[in-house]
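This entry is passed on directly below:
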Amino acid sequence: MNLYLISVLLFALSANLDNFTVAITFGMRKIKMNFFVNFLIAVITGVGTFLSMWIGGIIGRFFPASVSNTLGSVILILIGLWFLKDFFKKPQEDEAGQDEKVNLNAMLKDPEKADLDSSGTIDVKESAILALALTINNFGMGVGASISGLNICATTIFTFLISMFSITLGYRVGRGCIPKSLSRFVPLISGGIVIALGIFEMLI
């Protein structure tokens, strides 16, 4: 496996950790997800990755290659540190009235809220909103990855494929009664992977 492919895989894995833990929660709560919902989330996540990297590519054109690589790497490391900060900060109680509207951040912290009508099934509308939350969460990482030199097409394809796999695997793992408490470690793992990607891109 060459160094280029390692970078792409690190990005795709980190970008889909949230997908994995969301699917675990759905599996544990027996909230149904069909193949089309999984596919739609993967498509929206892939499109979001492409757009964020496209914007990063435009930004990168204003800098020499060496500067772009360093800048992109620094952005990735800072995003990774932000994820770590999210893990170590103390949980705060939801603000009053938060449940009365769609809150994308709350949806990622408590994936059950993605089932807006409490039907026990994630429909097309709910999956699109959930995918939007997942995509926004990874937007800055896509910009940084593109500036550091990752190929847009290859990264988008891998992000799509690993999204399909991670949601399927996460749902099955969740059905096996994995403790929901483990999901709190996602920011820690994701932050570590993104920091490793930033350092890796800076060195190659």
Remarks:
- Confidence is low (pLDDT under 50) at residues 93-102.
- The chain has nine helices and no strands.
- The CA atoms of residues 105 and 133 lie 7 Å apart.
